[in-house]
Every structure is written in structure tokens, then in C-alpha cells.
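Section 3.1: Structural characterization of target chains.
Under the original work plan, the team committed to producing a structural model for every single-chain target entering the pipeline before any wet-lab resources were allocated. The record below documents one such target. The sequence was received from the expression subgroup and is listed exactly as submitted; it comprises 188 residues.
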Amino acid sequence: MTYAIRKLFSFGLVVCLSLGLSACTPKEAGDSSGSDIPVATVGVTVLTMTHPFFLDLVEELKAEAERSNIEVVLVSSEFDVARQKDQMSDFIVQQVDAIILCPSDSKAIGTAIQEANAAGIPVFTADIAALVDDVAVVGHIGIDNFNGGVMAGETAIEALGGAGKVAIVDHPEVESVIQRTSGFLKAL
């Protein structure tokens, strides 16, 4: 991911958080602008900390949050939806002001989002959408994964000179990967 895209992506998350949190009451009473008291605490659970995309996302998000005086509690599910549900429960117990979620399973994470909704904690998704009815996701920051897949497919066709064999390794529980794979197959 280019530097500009990383910055835009993480800045978009912080803007969404700022807008979403404007209706929330921060943990600390009073105006904390210019002080060391965070205006909000945000729980962040990402898909993995082993992929450069998520490492870049996390670093830029932490930097933007620091500039906005937002405390970040960061964890990683490492592709395990049960672990991610536990992380969401921990955020609820900690009474974070908001949650940013990169779901490890776009459908199975629904019950955890419902619990956050019931606790009054706004949930934002990043990169990976949640595909669950009856849950409230305040905002989603992502890219057009389908067209990204189309572009990757076109690049593969060009690199192979229009003929060859291609293997697709995907993660069918994650909506962004499903979309990229669909776009790739359409291009082929």
C-alpha cells in the first residue's frame, strides 16, 4: 500500500471516529484539548499483525489517533473469529468509547457486534465489511476490492501473455477477499 493510501485510510478512520464519537461522552469530564487526558479510548481488533497491509494500517492509525488525542487499545485476531469475539467482549468490559473492527469472519462476528451495540459502543469496520443483518456499524472505511481484483486479474493476464495457469489462494470468510477474488475471476 502506498504511503498516500495508508495516510488517507487511517485519516479516514480517525475522521469517522471523531464524527461517531462526537455524540458520545468521553470517559473524562471536561475539555481535554491540550491535555494528556485522551478524549476517547478506542478498541481496535485487526485480522492479523503478520501482513504488511495491517502493519501499515495499525502504524498510521496509531499516529493519527495520537495527533487526535485518542487512546488506542490494539489487538489482533490472527484469523481466529472466536479470539476476535473475545477481544470484542474485552472492549465492552473495558467500556471503550468505540471499536474499530477488521473482521476475521464477515458473518460470524455478528454476535459480537450485537453485544457492542447493546452496550452502546459504536462499531466501525475497516477494510473488511461485516455482512450481518440486525447490527449497527456506524461507518466503514475500505477500498473497492472487486475492481482491485479486476485490476490484479488484468495484470496477471498481461504478465502471462494471455495464456497460462493461475492458482488463487484466498480467505473465503473475509468479504474483502471474496470481492477481490470475484473481480480477479471476472477479469480472467
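The beta strands are 40-46, 70-76, 98-101, 123-126, 139-141.
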